[in-house]
Design goal:
With about 250 residues, the protein is an alpha/beta fold. The protein has 8 helices and 8 strands. It binds NADP nicotinamide-adenine-dinucleotide phosphate.
C-alpha cells in the first residue's frame, strides 16, 4: 500500500471505496472505541479524533485511572471489568525510557532489569489487553484491535543495532498480536488484530531522542493511523502496518 501525493491511501488492501472515505465523518458505522494509554500523546489525539466523529470513547490510562499495565494485580481486574462491545480497541501505551533506563547504545549496556521492564510494559502489557479481545469485540460486524508497535521492532528492518530491549519488546508484541489474530479469526470473522507503526511523532516519548529527525504532530499521526485501520480488510488481520498502510517486514 502506498500513500499517494493527494494524501489518500492506495494499493493492495485498500479498495477504491475505502480510499474515498475520509475520516472527518463517522462513515464506517463505528460507535464505540476503547483506548488504552489515552493520556499519551498519540492516545489523546486518537481520542479527540474519534470523539469529534461522535464515537463514544472509553479511556484507560495510568495517570488518570491508575491503570498500570506493569501491575497485573491492578490492570487485570480493570480489564475484566470492561463491558464491550467496542468496534475499535487501540493499545496506545508504551515507553522508550523506563525508571531512568533509556534505550541502549550497545549490547554492553543491557541490564536484566531494564530489559524486563521493557517487556513488562511493551509486550506483556498489550498481551493482557489482547486476552480480552474475544470478549470485548462484536462478532456480528467489523471490528479492530490494534497495538501501537514500532518499526524498530522489525528484525528484517534492523540495520543500525542498539535499542536492544525496546526493539526486542516490540518484536515480541508483534508476535503476540499476530498470534492473537489467528485465534480471534476463529470466532470473529470480521475482526482485525494488527500491530501498527505510528511514524515518528512529536510526543513526550520522543522528546529526548528526536534531534533533527523529522516528526509529525500527534493529530496527524492519529489521523494516519485511523485511516489505515479504516482501510484494512479482514484478510489483513495479523499484519504489521506503518502509518501509511504499508506492511512492515517482521
Ligand atoms: N512517538 C513516536 O514517535 C513513536 C514511534 C514508534 C512507536 N511509538 C509507540 O506508540 C505508543 C504511544 O507513544 P506516544 O508517543 O503516544 O507516547 P507517550 O506520549 O509517552 O504516551 C505513553 C502512554 O503510555 C502510558 N504508559 C506508560 N507507562 C505505562 C504503564 N506502566 N502502564 C500503563 N500505561 C503506561 C502513558 O500513561 P501515563 O502518561 O498516564 O502515565 C501514556 O498514556 C508507544 O507504544 C510507542 O512505543 C511511538
Amino acid at each position: 500500500m502506498a500513500r499517494m501525493k493527494s494524501g489518500k491511501l492506495s494499493g493492495a488492501g485498500f479498495s477504491t471505496a475505502v480510499e474515498a472515505r475520509v475520516f472527518s465523518s463517522n462513515s464506517d458505522g463505528m460507535e464505540t472505541a476503547l483506548i488504552i494509554g489515552a493520556s499519551g500523546g498519540i492516545g489523546s489525539a486518537l481520542r479527540e479524533h474519534l470523539q469529534a466523529r461522535g464515537i463514544t470513547v472509553r479511556c484507560l490510562s495510568r495517570s488518570v485511572h491508575g491503570f498500570d499495565l506493569t501491575r497485573p494485580d491492578v490492570a487485570e481486574p480493570m480489564l475484566a471489568a470492561l463491558a464491550g462491545p467496542f468496534d475499535l480497541i487501540i493499545v496506545a501505551s508504551g515507553a522508550l525510557e523506563i525508571a531512568g533506563a533509556g534505550p541502549e547504545k550497545s549490547m554492553r549496556a543491557v541490564t536484566a532489569q531494564a530489559m524486563m521492564d521493557q517487556f513488562a510494559l511493551n509486550a506483556v502489557g498489550p498481551a493482557l489487553v489482547l486476552k480480552h479481545a474475544q470478549r470485548l469485540l462484536p462478532r456480528d460486524r467489523r471490528s479492530v484491535i490494534a497495538v501501537l508497535s514500532a518499526r524498530v521492532g522489525s528484525i528484517g528492518d534492523n540495520r543500525l543495532g542498539g535499542w536492544v530491549s525496546y526493539r526486542a519488546a516490540k518484536a515480541a508484541v508483534n508476535q503476540i498480536a499476530h498470534t492473537a489474530a489467528i485465534e480471534l479469526k476463529r470466532t470473529h470473522k470480521q475482526a482485525l488484530c494488527v500491530a501498527l507503526h505510528p511514524g515518528t511523532v512529536k510526543t513526550a516519548f520522543t522528546e529526548k531522542y528526536l534531534g533533527r529527525h523529522p516528526a509529525v504532530a500527534p493529530e496527524e499521526a492519529a489521523a494516519n493511523l485511523l485511516a489505515v485501520l479504516n482501510g484494512l480488510h479482514p484478510a489483513d488481520t495479523g499484519g504489521f502496518f506503518d502509518w501509511a498502510g504499508q506492511p512492515v517486514p517482521w
